[in-house]
Structure to design on (160 residues):
């Protein structure tokens, strides 16, 4: 299998704030990062250009990441104070994105699902498969979501 890796916005991440409401550490408090995302795609055969996938076709994924994370407070649906944080958005104090959960592990899974959707929209899902996605908080902390093998073979999106 051929594999390509794309680091989305390698020079600057997307600035956001989130928290882990059930953490027993300082991670329960709102804190910010410049998140960086990396996607790995694989194919058994190269396209007519000799590529796994055209790097430029990942621009919609970069846009989805910016729309969801850049200068946003990310709130998990499971946050017991989600309503209070939503009030801050209603007052125009913060820009909010509500996701199922927060944290690099979930953000990596979200990115993998979004990448599969982009591949599907270009008609490339099937020949090209999402192998993994990584979300980095900083130089020391990263989380990777690897797409299970059976999902890669079917070309279907997965539940996360």
């Amino acid at each position: 299998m051929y594999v390509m890796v794309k680091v989305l916005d390698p020079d600057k991440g997307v600035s956001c704030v989130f928290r882990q409401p059930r953490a027993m550490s300082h991670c329960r408090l709102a804190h910010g990062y410049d998140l960086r995302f990396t996607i790995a795609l694989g194919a058994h055969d190269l396209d007519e250009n000799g590529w796994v996938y055209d790097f430029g076709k990942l621009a919609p994924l970069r846009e989805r990441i910016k729309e969801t994370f850049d200068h946003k407070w990310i709130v998990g649906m499971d946050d017991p104070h989600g309503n209070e944080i939503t009030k801050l958005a209603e007052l125009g104090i913060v820009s909010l994105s509500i996701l199922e959960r927060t944290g690099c592990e979930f953000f990596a899974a979200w990115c993998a699902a979004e990448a599969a959707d982009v591949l599907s929209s270009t008609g490339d899902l099937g020949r090209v498969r999402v192998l993994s996605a990584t979300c980095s908080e900083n130089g020391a902390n990263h989380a990777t979501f690897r797409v299970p093998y059976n999902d890669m073979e079917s070309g279907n999106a997965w539940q996360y």
Q: What stands out?
A: The mean pLDDT is 91. The chain is about 30% helix and 30% strand. The chain has one domain: 2-36+67-144.
